[in-house]
């Protein structure tokens, strides 16, 4: 992970003896708890409101000494229990108990002092540190006393942390069913570390057994790590709970995700975009509200990357094991450039998350809010809110697939169109659900866009797909809307071809694309894409989705999948193209193509594409959203 100045060396003790550390404590080693220590904890919530909590921490003596080769763990001595207010008098071999808060403060001081010994001393002999750099996307693990010291030596040699600034911190003492844990958010601008967060989980002796460090070190230059997924496929309690959590998150299912919490669970959320606030959500009701709001800010739930997932169970044979999950994720197209969670599970019921620390850098752009309001007001048939999301120069192109009717709407016509659409939906919209939803932020030369696929088996409209292209203010500038109205379809079949004169960039690119498609030429069609292009393909028949990223993958999609499915005797078979609409780049315009097609003989009963072109280089397709109803033909 870091450019360490020391090579990592092997832990001095044999692995088996290290893992037997706690068994070595049996026999003549005596441990006596001191008095229960109660401390105050300040929580920074909305604004600057301070809330005091009583944190109970068991005052246990430190019985873990460094192992030297061949040397067994020595007895630490027994401390006397003092009178009220004292934590036990230190004898010749005894050691006064230290609070979790003090350990946290000592750790911060060790970082700023760049003191390797002090930074390492509170780690258990079988402790491990998971480190992830969000800049170069590299992951490393440092286990045992020697490796942990080597890690800190390398860290302090690489950066000057004397100017480190603590932004927020939180500590939790041990409870009956959860290990003690701490959480720190810091930065060091002079070190080129603008963001960093650490979580530490402790054993009964207040030694750190698991430690995570996630930071953005912009001088990091290690190779990107492949996906890390440790312990995710088991049927053990934490792995099973994690599978439920991960699946419910992807499906935006609040009811399912709440199965992972109870009324004493606490979730802390820190956003680098609002560094003065640390949100605290306790109990299932508050946590449910958190996820409801969070999912609303995450329209592209399927566009979430998780480069690191580390799942650990409670293991009676491993003294250092503690039930927890370490997650690193991101969703830049939803505005979450970087994010990490650490979940501390119950030691009594490892299916329950007791404490969760969430750190994000999330500043969703304006179009994401517009997209969220677009969907919620559509479900509620709230026309006024719905219309507020459109720019004054907005245009909507609509195609109904049962009869093949096409219409264009702008200005006041948009309001009239939604009156008719809401009537077609019918009174019962309870079955209206998003199948897929993606949002892409504005990038250099590429405007923000979004894509939705929805269904409603109880409604008059069974299938729908929408593509939205936004202006710089996050308002909808262009909107393509294709739906299948089973019960109330009206009008007659249309044939619209507005593709320009091939002298302008989008028109020339479209001529190449259309010709290459008809000829089944994957090489020529790949010219229309680059390595940042993305093609989404969704089949309503079976709710099957595939995403193809980059020119090579897109070319392979045409060559190995789409073209073979359309060929009859070697030729591409398309039975109809009722809509081709093309728009070039310009003021209050968005370079795009709206296409409706079908290939009934090859099982494509319904199909539509919207192509969003690069504004800077309108010959390149940056986003393509393909939705079909396809039954494969043998």
What secondary-structure arrangement, pairings included, does this model have?
Layout: H1 15-19, H2 21-24, E1 37-44, E2 50-57, H3 100-113, H4 116-120, E3 123-133, E4 138-143, H5 144-158, E5 165-172, E6 181-188, E7 193-202, E8 208-216, E9 228-230, H6 237-250, H7 254-257, E10 266-271, E11 278-282, H8 283-296, E12 305-312, E13 324-331, E14 336-345, E15 353-362, H9 366-379, H10 383-387, E16 390-400, E17 405-410, H11 413-425, E18 433-440, E19 449-455, E20 461-470, E21 476-485, E22 496-498, H12 505-519, H13 522-526, E23 534-539, E24 544-549, H14 551-566, E25 567-568, E26 571-572, E27 576-583, E28 592-599, E29 604-613, E30 621-630
Quick synopsis:
The protein is of the alpha+beta class and 634 residues long. The chain has three domains: 1-223, Nuclear Transport Factor 2, Chain: A (Roll); 227-363, Roll (Nuclear Transport Factor 2, Chain: A), CATH 3.10.450; 366-630, Nuclear Transport Factor 2, Chain: A.
Task: Kindly describe this structure.
The chain has 634 residues and is an alpha+beta fold. The chain folds into three domains: 1-223, Nuclear Transport Factor 2, Chain: A (Roll), CATH 3.10.450; 227-363, Nuclear Transport Factor 2, Chain: A, CATH 3.10.450; 366-630, Nuclear Transport Factor 2, Chain: A, CATH 3.10.450.50. 23% of the residues lie in helices and 35% in strands. The protein has 14 helices and 30 strands. Strands 9-12-13-14-15-10-11 form a seven-stranded mixed sheet, with helices on one face. A seven-stranded mixed sheet has the order 22-27-28-29-30-23-24, covered by helices on one side. The protein has a six-stranded mixed sheet with strand order 4-3-8-7-6-5, with helices on one face. A hairpin with a 7-residue loop joins strand 29 (604-613) and strand 30 (621-630). It is elongated, with a radius of gyration of 29 Å. The model is unreliable at 1-95 (pLDDT under 50).
């Amino acid at each position: 992970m870091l450019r360490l100045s020391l090579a990592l060396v092997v832990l001095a003790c044999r692995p088996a003896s290290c893992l037997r550390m706690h068994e070595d404590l049996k026999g003549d080693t005596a441990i006596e708890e001191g008095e229960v220590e109660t401390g105050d904890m300040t929580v920074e919530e909305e604004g600057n409101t301070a809330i005091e909590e009583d944190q109970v921490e068991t005052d246990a003596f430190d019985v873990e000494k460094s192992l030297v080769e061949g040397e067994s763990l020595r007895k630490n001595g027994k401390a006397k229990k003092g009178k009220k207010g004292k934590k036990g008098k230190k004898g010749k071999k005894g050691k006064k108990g230290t609070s979790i808060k003090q350990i946290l403060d000592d750790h911060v001081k060790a970082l700023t002092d760049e003191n390797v010994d002090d930074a390492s001393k509170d780690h258990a002999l079988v402790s491990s540190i998971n480190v992830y750099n969000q800049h170069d996307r590299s992951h490393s693990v440092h286990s045992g006393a020697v490796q942990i010291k080597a890690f800190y030596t390398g860290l302090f040699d690489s950066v000057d942390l004397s100017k480190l600034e603590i932004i927020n911190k939180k500590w939790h003492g041990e409870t009956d069913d959860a290990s003690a844990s701490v959480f720190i958010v810091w930065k060091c601008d002079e070190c080129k570390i603008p963001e960093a967060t650490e979580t530490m989980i402790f054993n009964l002796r207040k030694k750190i057994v698991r430690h995570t460090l996630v930071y953005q070190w912009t001088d990091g230059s290690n190779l990107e790590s492949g996906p890390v997924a440790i312990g995710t496929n088991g049927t053990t309690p934490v792995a099973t709970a994690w599978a439920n959590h991960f699946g419910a998150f992807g499906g935006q299912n609040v009811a399912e995700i709440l199965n992972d919490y109870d009324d004493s669970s606490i979730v802390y959320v820190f956003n680098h975009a609002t560094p003065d606030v640390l949100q605290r959500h306790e109990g299932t009701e508050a946590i449910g509200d958190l996820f409801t709001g969070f999912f609303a800010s995450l329209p592209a739930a399927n566009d979430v990357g998780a480069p690191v997932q580390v799942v650990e169970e409670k293991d009676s044979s491993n003294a250092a094991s503690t039930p927890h999950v370490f997650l690193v994720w991101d969703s830049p197209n939803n505005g979450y450039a970087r994010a990490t969670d650490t979940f501390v599970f119950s030691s009594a019921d490892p299916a329950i998350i007791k404490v969760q620390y969430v750190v994000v850098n999330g500043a969703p752009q304006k179009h994401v809010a517009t997209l969220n309001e677009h969907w919620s007001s559509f479900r509620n048939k709230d026309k006024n809110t719905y219309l507020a999301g459109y720019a004054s120069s907005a245009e909507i192109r609509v195609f109904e697939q049962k009869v093949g009717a096409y219409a264009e709407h702008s200005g006041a016509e948009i309001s009239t169109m939604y009156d008719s659409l809401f009537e077609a939906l019918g009174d019962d919209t309870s079955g209206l659900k998003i199948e897929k939803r993606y949002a892409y932020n504005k990038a250099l030369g590429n405007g923000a866009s979004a894509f939705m696929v929805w269904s409603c088996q109880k409604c008059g409209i069974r299938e729908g797909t929408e593509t939205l292209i936004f202006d710089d203010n996050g308002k909808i500038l262009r909107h393509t809307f294709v739906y299948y109205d089973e019960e109330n379809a009206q009008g007659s079949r249309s044939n619209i071809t507005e593709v320009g004169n091939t002298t302008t960039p989008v028109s020339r690119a479209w001529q190449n694309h259309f010709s290459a498609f008809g000829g089944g030429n994957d090489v020529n069609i790949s010219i229309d894409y680059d390595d940042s292009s993305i093609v989404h393909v969704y089949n309503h028949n079976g709710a099957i989705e595939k995403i193809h990223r980059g020119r090579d993958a897109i070319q392979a999609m045409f060559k190995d999948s789409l073209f073979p499915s359309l060929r009859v005797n070697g030729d591409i078979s398309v039975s109809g193209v009722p809509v081709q609409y093309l728009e070039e780049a310009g003021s209050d315009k968005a370079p795009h193509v709206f296409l409706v097609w079908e290939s009934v003989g090859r099982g494509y009963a319904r199909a539509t594409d919207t192509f969003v072109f690069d504004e800077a280089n309108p010959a390149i397709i940056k986003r393509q959203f393909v939705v079909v109803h396809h039954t494969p033909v043998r």
